[in-house]
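REVIEWER CHECKLIST
Item 1: Sequence provided? yes
Item 2: Single chain? yes
Item 3: Sequence as submitted:
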Amino acid sequence: MIRVLIADDHAIIRTGIKQLLADTDDMIAAGEAADGQTVLDLLSHETYDVVVLDLSMPGRGGLDTLKQIKALYPDVAVLVLSMYPEEYYATRALRAGAAGYLTKQSATDELIEAIRRVGSGRKYITESLAEKLADEMNLSSGKELHHKLSDRELIVMQRLAIGFTATQIAAELSLSVKTISTYRDRILQKMQMKTNAELIQYVLSHNLLE
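Item 4: Structure as written out by the authors:
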């Protein structure tokens, strides 16, 4: 029996996944969490085989949570289930240790198959993602600018784009305001931009927010 921990801040999503798992005979929804810290707390007290993880949750970001899971519980498989399109976040998630990546628009039977596969120790990558990964390997140049950012820089850019101040971002990420300002300067340099307004336009035009 595959024990699944469902991590998503939307209760309706968690309920839908639980209903899907209830219709199978080889997996069970053994826990649920609405934020990254709760995921880590549950993993410290219970045994799970697979974490179905959303990337966009309050507090600790999904990518940070993923990295913590793999550092502390390397045997737990993480399947990312996200609103974000594959081309923007899948490679980051896989590099961070995810065993698979699916968008929430994927068919329900695809989610069940993905959980089964990662629960058995294998990887789950869609055909379209495999093609994107191959293209990325063959075309190392000409990437869009945001691919140059680190995971933390990407998070800071997203927060800036939705109007967070440096103080608010610092509080959320448990960093100093000075560090956030340094991140902002580095982001602008890598993105070849000069103002937050340019960042906002880029983030919106590239669908980097839910």
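Item 5: Key structural point noted by reviewer: The two ends are 33 Å apart (CA to CA).
Item 6: Recommendation: ____
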